[in-house]
Amino acid sequence: MQQEIKSRVVGVDISIKRTTYAIVDVRGNIHASDHFPTTDYTTANDFITALSEKIITMTEANGGYEQIRSIGVSSPSANFLTGCIENAANLPWKGIIPLGAMLRDRMGIAVAVGNDAHVSALGEYSYGCAHGMNNFIIVSLGHGIGSCIFSNGKVHFGADGFAGEIGHACVEHNGRECGCGRYGCLEAYCAEKGIIKTAQEMLEQSDEPSLMRSLDRISPKGIAECCEQGDKMAIEVYRKTGEILGLAVANYASILDPEAVIFTGGISNAGKWLFDPAYESFEAHVFHNIRGNVKFLRSTISDRERDVLGASALAWGIKEYSLFK
Amino acid sequence: MQQEIKSRVVGVDISIKRTTYAIVDVRGNIHASDHFPTTDYTTANDFITALSEKIITMTEANGGYEQIRSIGVSSPSANFLTGCIENAANLPWKGIIPLGAMLRDRMGIAVAVGNDAHVSALGEYSYGCAHGMNNFIIVSLGHGIGSCIFSNGKVHFGADGFAGEIGHACVEHNGRECGCGRYGCLEAYCAEKGIIKTAQEMLEQSDEPSLMRSLDRISPKGIAECCEQGDKMAIEVYRKTGEILGLAVANYASILDPEAVIFTGGISNAGKWLFDPAYESFEAHVFHNIRGNVKFLRSTISDRERDVLGASALAWGIKEYSLFK
């Protein structure tokens, strides 16, 4: 006779604008999913009360709450070691929020909390193109540049949970000023604002015609569309961006010897315009022993699904991934 | 009644010039130790036959071979995953040498084989100043620059066993030519030849008096001795070297968030002349969230002991550290 088992978990992705929550089974099938604006709640307490009620409602309508084994939560500025959101720059709640403990107390089951960059890698490892890879790097290209290292089949958190800060690696001695106050950081060239700045500089420094001149607002997406139409200057913007990205990732990979570098985030939609020059620069700069051995991949899961799936993987591995319980 | 246990291991350190072997207990006490020239044996087979006999003789004279639980071996170009020495540039034996299997077959006990840089970190973790640290970096400064990453309490090997190649991180776009054929590598500035080159360049480009001009042969040790006597130009050689080292290690640490960076190798004997400017440059360049949190340490074990102790730690952790058996 087969006894009842708890066969599902809840994955929660808190992001700046919206919070997504979903019921997920161990194979990564999403059985139900919904979302609400994160900014609707001015206190963490109200947010957690609302989230708890929404989870109960959804699970009761989809097989029952008793099927849920545990909950995994992805959030910016989350510290996996403490289960807290710590001084999040872009969330409405300030200071140290003991999110994991608060949610666990309300829900009565185990809760694991992870940093969005780390959870993202866990999602790719569990259900995406990093499956079976014990050593890889994930690099997310968007407003900022985040990354996460997988070492020996586990997230490398570092001593304080800050590992993976490729965005502020110095790629140009005394180069462009970065939002962090230093000069020459990767983000200042290859994140959203950096790419826009490169385009603006090129447009200012030349009289050549370019489709970019007729864009209402210069954006990485708009520049990529100009590339598709054969615009030389737009292609050069991504070539330059790719060259710098490739150099930084080569230094990163020379140290870590990953099986693959997996790119996610909006900027990666530029596709070949970015990644062809990036890979060429990567191969030129990477340590010769690993040249030709490191795969450049684009994520096979959508940005939105990845974090919910990663949070569910966190929930499945609760013994391993939650120390604060 | 207490039954007999195997209470000791043998640690073997194969280095370019000499091979050291020692009987070590679990607390890192060395009960006997000896060495012989590695280059005495032109074939790997002869080398392993001699090594086996020497180990038997030493153990029989020191408590008996039956007390030995296992053997750990440190070697350049060793691949921990296969137990082989693979295409060692600086050892007399070419090609792929299945050292672990050969030694195991002769000795009748388990053998683990590790790469010298990784074993070195394991020695520091088991018996040196990295004890209790789950995340740290070890950087060895000598003829070349090697390094090893500890992640979550284990060596980070990378996908192919090449992780830790900080020596060939690019620190100066289109800078000095490196022995590896590329330009601007850290090794070209901060390893032995690089430091000598910096000194020579400074001596050529200026007429200022310097004690370095009266050295028979310019060496990192000689330059450090000039520093001790207050020689301005010698101090400037190490200041410049430290500045570059600090920048490279800052990029390394920003990615990995280690608890400490531990320096080993002959060049680190330059002490404050190198590490004061290196730490200053490190703090200026490291990601702000970890600034002030990363310790700069010099190894507390002698270079010679570290590898034998690391090899013995490999032997103690044989289940974990030997996959090829």
Can you give a write-up of this model?
Two copies of one chain form a homodimer. Helices cover 37% and strands 21% of the residues of chain A. With 325 residues, chain A is α/β, with parallel strands linked by helices. The first copy, chain A, has a five-stranded mixed β-sheet. The mean pLDDT of chain A is 91. The first copy, chain A, folds into two domains: 8-121 and 304-316, Nucleotidyltransferase, domain 5; 131-300, ATPase, nucleotide binding domain (Nucleotidyltransferase, domain 5). Chain A starts with 7 loop residues before the first strand and ends with a helix. The first copy, chain A, is built from ten helices and 13 strands. The A-B interface holds A 133-136, 147, 149, 151-152, 154, 156-166, 168-170, 172-173, 180-182, 247, 250-252, 254-259, 285, 287-290, 293-294 and B 133-136, 147, 149, 151-152, 154, 156-166, 168-170, 172-173, 180-182, 247, 250-252, 254-259, 285, 287-290, 293-294.
Main attributes of the structure:
21% strand, homodimer, 2 domains, Nucleotidyltransferase, domain 5, 325 residues, alpha/beta, 37% helix, five-stranded mixed sheet
Give the strand order, joined by hyphens, for the main sheet of chain A: 3-2-1-4-8
Largest sheet of chain A: 5 strands, mixed
CATH fold node name of the largest domain in chain A = Nucleotidyltransferase, domain 5
- CATH secondary-structure class of the largest domain in chain A: Alpha Beta
Spatial gap, N to C terminus of chain A: 33 Å
Chain-averaged pLDDT of chain A: 91
Count every helix of chain A, treating DSSP H or I runs of 4 or more residues as helices: 10
Please name the fourth-level CATH homologous superfamily of the largest domain in chain A. Answer: ATPase, nucleotide binding domain
Structural class of chain A: alpha/beta
The total of beta strands of chain A comes to 13
**CATH arch. level architecture of the largest domain in chain A:** 2-Layer Sandwich
Q: Which of globular, elongated, flat, extended, rod-shaped describes the shape of chain A? A: globular
